[in-house]
Design goal:
Largest sheet: 5 strands, mixed
Number of helices: 7
Strand order of the largest sheet: 1-3-9-8-5
Helix content: under 10%
Strand content: 25-35%
Structural class: mainly beta
Distance between the termini: 175 Å
Number of strands: 52
Radius of gyration: 70 Å
Shape: elongated
């Protein structure tokens, strides 16, 4: 059976310690949120546990935990640490599951939470069966059919373990009630002496056996350890050192009783030690300096800011209850107490009116927080500073510094400042309450002026946005108003804007002359002769109050057809106007003229004259095309012919085409047929016309009035055609006037020319191959064109020469020469075969490559048996087939006597050097 019950709660007295009251609160005690008791002991009758339900009796005030959050408990929620029990919103406790009986006391925590900051309050609830003993029976109230009186009271300083339920042969014996152990309260910061006894625990079985007592839990055998200790024999529990509630507010220990063998003789007892708070902590502000603001002119009671201080002491006691007050205010204007503070919440509000930012923009307020509910005699205090800024509101309209302002403006000038308006505004600068907005309310209907605000000085700058004309307005009288960008605050009696007058004088300036009609257009027929007066292109001077003259000149006249009178602007032609000129665009000819006055400084203006030229029929049509070709047989093809005319409608087409009557062969060979108004076809009139080029005259006439005609010649090539009607190549040539023989000759010449080109290419490739196989005499990097050649070096004479003269003698045997393979020989060897003619040497070197010329000369010298036996290359001009002097190789050396070289003198100047060396007889 599921059993539900509502439990009556009552507070238990503290063991060894009583609650103390700070201050006298009997008459008017302030509300402190929390449970009414920190520990509830609850007895439940046995009959209720056996099935009797008292849910109908939940309205009894003692059937619930008592809690008050000082705000009506509207958002408070309760929680139980034991899942078997729950707490309703009104504090009533009921069971969640079926409970068969309570063999042992049940203890759990009840927690109250309140959003939004989820502040937590806790209390302890202990359940036991009615009939068990309690140390304070007078404070226990039972709920059931009858109240069971408790047994006699034990000693206050001794706590007995609950007796076990014992069975006898006769059945269940009466069981003594368990001790109800209230929490043990220990004041923090106790001065001792230590260890200090808190309670004594004793088992009623210590008469029969020796008992050993011990405690476990945080503060005993768990960190922080050795805070509490117990005498294992006497069962006395001690606190060993001062406790600090701010470090730990409560301890939960368990007392154990075992015999000498370590066997448990009693169930463990829960011991709750609560540390009683002492006022040992000052209130601490969250910030040392708080910043707040309030609008100037605020009414009394206006919210300014909030300051908050926390006290580490218990806030459910006077030790942690903080109260606020204002110590000082600076400055004292307009009164010393402009602000007040809510002593409990820390909210600062205004007390009196009179906040004026223009007089005092900031206040410094010293705030004091005191615990003990603000008792200055016993409480601890701390201070903080509140900086209160007075926020500006638009309570001061702008004021113009003068009632009238003046300025002047040149005519025809824009974007210049002509007057400066100054204003005074006592509101905070560079805010919407201070920024000035200027408006022109009258005196400028055409919108010539505007007023811009200087962002730095707040002055109004009267600026010209539309040019003014001195001849139209010599002065302006403006009415100007100024107001703030933000609207004026409520309750301000003065006007929200200020008004002033602005006089602006216009200064006359020399203005440029202007042409009333610009551009000016006139119409004339083309062909107007030179000297014709076309029009008068005159300009006006806007300066009516100045006596000035205007002079005219020509700026642009592309065809140089016009001239202008310098004084009156009359336009006269200097040449015939031709519509077909390249300077005429869309029948319009444009010229530009300048008009300048004699003012100071001079001013000038330009004007454009447009002459629309009306077309006359003054151009003959031209035949198109000029050349064409046609097949030599009739009805094969024809030629489309049209005409072009430089004139325009109606002096152009439709055109009239006709063949002249002379010569008669024209009409005999050709005929014209009309296609449309602009095109005709020219075709053969006879069956066959021999190939060739024919000049066909055609007369073309336009449709103008009077009509213009032109006789044009079209060159027609008549040629034989293929099956498609196209001229063949041979036919085209034949049509050019060449006969068959001439055509064959041309083809033969083309073949010969191609053959010669082919042979030349082959010869060039062979020559290039020879050049690559023969080593160059001069390295390409040492090109003779890039070096200095010295030709006048003659050496040091005979003493410097080291010649082997034996090389000039006839060799004894020619076998080594005969056995040599054909090819290049030494130049000092005499050929054994008949001497050939000198090899042909190039006369003029190729202008493109001097290296080729040197290579040709080298090859000729190598193949020349008559070349001298020198190491250097000597090239001489070719002088004929031979020489009467013979060859030097004919000189022989004698082994038996001296050789006579006198005959060398007869060989000419070439051998003079040898004659001087070896001729002349014996030496002296």
């Amino acid at each position: 059976m599921k059993i539900g019950f509502v439990i009556s709660l009552t507070g238990a007295l503290l063991l060894g310690t009583s609650w103390g009251n700070y201050g006298d609160h009997t008459s008017k005690r302030p509300c402190r949120p929390g449970f009414s008791e920190s520990f509830y002991t609850v007895f439940v009758s046995r009959d209720i546990l056996e099935g009797q339900s008292i849910l109908k009796d939940t309205t009894v005030s003692s059937g619930r935990v008592k809690f008050d959050d000082c705000q009506g408990n509207q958002r408070v929620g309760f929680e139980s640490s034991d899942p078997n029990f729950s707490v309703r919103t009104d504090g009533s406790i009921y069971t969640e599951h079926e409970v068969a009986g309570l063999s042992e006391p049940v203890q759990f925590m009840v927690t109250a939470k309140r959003p939004p900051n989820m502040q937590i309050w806790e209390t302890t609830v202990k359940l036991a069966l009615a009939g068990q003993t309690t140390p304070f029976p007078s404070l226990v109230k039972l709920i059931g059919k009858e109240n069971t009186p408790p047994e006699s009271d034990p000693q206050l300083s001794v706590t007995l373990f609950p007796w076990k339920q014992q069975l006898s042969s006769n059945g269940l014996r009466r069981r003594k009630r368990d001790w109800v152990i209230p929490p043990i309260n220990v004041p923090e910061n106790s001065r001792g002496p230590f260890p200090q006894m808190l309670v004594r625990i004793r088992s009623d079985q210590d008469r029969e056996t020796l008992i050993r007592y011990s405690i476990t839990g945080v503060g005993a055998d768990q960190p922080p350890m050795e805070v509490f200790s117990i005498d294992p024999v006497a069962g006395k529990m001690f606190v060993t050192k001062p406790l600090d509630r701010e470090e730990r507010a409560s301890y939960h220990l368990r007392a154990h009783a075992v015999d000498m063998n370590g066997i448990k003789v009693e169930n463990p007892i829960d011991l709750y030690i609560y540390v009683i708070d002492m006022n040992d902590n000052r209130p601490e502000f969250h910030n040392q300096v708080y910043n707040g603001s309030v609008d100037e002119g605020s009414k009394p009671g206006s919210y300014v800011m909030k300051v908050t201080a926390n006290d580490a002491d218990d806030d459910t006691t006077a030790n942690g209850m903080v109260r606020y007050r204002i110590l000082s205010q600076s400055p004292h204007s307009p009164i010393p107490n402009m602000f007040t503070i809510n002593s409990e919440t820390g909210d600062i509000v205004t007390v009196a009116a009179g906040l004026d930012r223009e007089k005092v923009s900031q206040y410094t307020v010293i705030i004091q927080a005191t615990d003990m509910e603000g008792n200055l005699n016993f409480g601890l205090s701390n201070t903080a500073t509140a900086i209160i800024s007075v926020t500006d509101v638009n309570d001061n309209p702008p004021e113009l510094t003068a009632s009238t302002f003046s300025g002047e403006v040149p005519e025809n000038r824009v974007n210049i400042v002509v007057a400066n308006l100054t204003v005074i505004d006592r509101d905070q600068p560079h805010t919407a309450n201070w920024n000035a907005v200027y408006r022109i309310v009258s005196g400028d209907p055409s919108g010539h002026f505007t007023i811009r605000t200087d962002p730095i000085t707040n002055d109004g700058m009267v600026t010209v946005v539309k040019p003014v004309d001195y001849e139209m307005n010599r002065a302006f009288m403006l009415t100007v108003t100024v107001s703030n960008q933000a609207p004026l605050a409520n309750g301000i009696q003065s006007s929200f804007q200020s008004t002033a007058g602005v006089t602006i004088s216009v200064m006359d300036a020399n203005e440029a002359p202007f042409f009333p009609s610009n551009p000016k257009q006139i119409r004339f027929e083309e062909g107007v002769p030179a000297g014709t007066t076309l029009t008068t292109f005159a300009a006006n001077d806007p300066d009516r109050f100045m006596q000035q003259t205007i002079r005219y000149s020509k700026l642009s006249d592309p065809a140089n057809w016009l001239n202008i009178n310098a004084t009156n602007g009359q336009i006269i032609t200097t040449a015939v106007l031709d519509r077909e000129s390249i300077y005429v665009k869309n029948n319009i000819y444009e010229a530009t003229f300048l008009a300048a006055d004699n003012g100071f400084p001079p001013a000038s203006g330009t004007g454009t004259l447009q002459i629309y030229l009306i077309d006359v029929n003054d151009n003959s049509p031209e035949l198109l095309p000029k050349e064409a070709q046609i097949c030599e047989k009739i009805n094969t093809n024809s030629i489309n012919i049209t005409a072009s005319d430089s004139d325009v409608e109606p002096n152009v087409g439709p055109f009239v085409f006709e063949l002249p009557s002379s010569p008669p062969s024209v009409r005999r060979n050709w005929t014209i047929s009309r296609l449309n108004g602009d095109y005709v076809q020219l075709s053969l009139h006879i069956q066959y016309l021999e190939s060739g080029v024919y000049d066909v005259p055609i007369i073309v006439s336009d449709s103008g009035n009077p009509t213009m005609s032109n006789k044009s010649i079209i060159k027609v090539k008549v040629c034989p055609c293929d099956e498609n009607g196209d001229c063949t190549t041979i036919g085209a040539v034949a049509a050019a006037g060449l006969g068959t023989g001439a055509i064959i000759a041309i083809l033969i010449c083309i073949i010969i020319l191609l053959t010669m080109v082919l042979l030349f290419v082959v010869w060039m490739k062979r020559r290039e191959k020879e050049r690559q196989t023969k080593q160059l005499l001069i390295d390409p990097e040492d090109d003779v064109r890039d070096n200095i050649l010295k030709y006048d070096e003659e050496g040091g004479g005979e003493e410097d020469q080291d010649y082997d003269l034996s090389q000039l003698q006839q060799p004894e045997s020619l076998d080594h020469i005969i056995s040599k393979p054909p090819g290049i020989r030494r130049v000092d060897e005499r050929p054994v075969v008949a001497e050939s003619q000198y090899p042909i040497r190039p006369v003029v070197p190729h202008p493109g490559d001097i290296g080729d010329f040197i290579n040709e000369g080298l090859r000729a010298a190598d193949n020349d048996p008559t070349a001298p036996p020198y190491d250097s290359l000597l090239v001489f001009d070719y002088e004929g087939s031979g020489s009467t002097a013979g060859s030097v190789s004919s000189l022989n050396s004698s082994s038996t006597g001296d050789q006579d070289y006198d005959y060398l003198n007869d060989w000419g100047p070439r051998f003079k050097k040898l004659a001087d060396m070896y001729g002349g007889g014996d030496e002296d």
